Amino acid sequence: MRRNAAPRPYAAPLALGVAALIAMTACTSGSGSSTSGAAPGDPGQEQLASSAATPGATPTGSVAAMAPGASSGARAVQKRDVVRTGTLEATVTDLGAAAARVRTLVASYDGVVANEELRRSTGPGSSSTDTFTLRVPEARFDAAVEDLAKVGTVTARTVRAEDVTGQVADTAGRVKTMQASLDRTRALMARAASIEDITRLESELTRREADLEGLQAQLATLRSQAAMSTITLSLTQPAAEARAAEDRSGFQAGWHAGWRAFLGLLTALAALLGFSLPLVLPLAVVVVPLVLWWRRRRARRRG
Questions:
Q1: Does residue 146 contact residue 138 with C-beta atoms inside 8 Å?
Q2: Residues 156, 149: Cα–Cα separation, whole Å
Q3: Beta carbons of 215 and 174 less than 8 angstroms apart
Q4: pLDDT in tens, 151-165
Q5: Are the C-beta atoms of 190 and 224 separated by less than 8 Å?
Q6: How many Å apart are CA 273 and CA 87, to the nearest integer?
Q7: Bridge pairing between strands 82-91 and 228-238
Q8: What is the rounded distance in angstroms from the CA atom of residue 101 to the CA atom of residue 256?
Q9: CA-CA distance, 136 to 120, in Å (whole number)?
Q10: Count of other CB atoms within 10 angstroms of residue 294
Q11: Nearest CA to 135 among 86, 176, 181, 96?
């Protein structure tokens, strides 16, 4: 028993490593925010540092685009991550045909219909609306908006662009830092000897894996939004009755009003006849024979 209690030569360094790893937890989230200004692996920052260290060096990438006197080949501009969104509202005369045309246009631009919502109203003077949520490649966003605007008569149009290059670089840096932290945690777990150290490291590893998955999902969402732009298109078909009512005025309006009143009168008379028939037929069966008998009797008296 005393032999097992003998101190291990690597226990103290391992315990110090576990304590240092847990102390770095608060620093992990802070390291992500510090990468927003200069993300790891940012070509512009690395080239700027190398050009400052090496006299006469010519910077390239995003820095070269701002260098005066640089050649056209060296003016390579760093690709920006831009999230572009558009909103279109239009009226159409045939909602079904317009919707089919929208689907064809989106397919021709290698896009997809992410969502479609059709609303049909049945009340007088109502209209039907078909709302699309479309995803198209960012490089073909402008052309897609122009073609979709030709489907109907545009009543509202909005286009927005948001530069998320900094957010992408910041999130990518935080993913890299978290991945390195996970690797260190797994290395410590491989050398852990006590149950207490293993339990503590497993808890820390689980928490950091969840944080890493959240950062990876956030990074994937940002890159997807930048790669595929979103267009919200609302097509509205006014009701035929509403369009006809707007075109009527003067004598034409009076004519249609009188015709509707005449049709209403005929409808009321037909309803009255239908209501009276069940009552009149039984009376006719009794009354008609009595009337015929009374007329014959009167004719005999006169004769």
A1: no
A2: 10
A3: yes
A4: 999 999 999 988 888
A5: no
A6: 56
A7: parallel
A8: 36
A9: 27
A10: 10
A11: 86
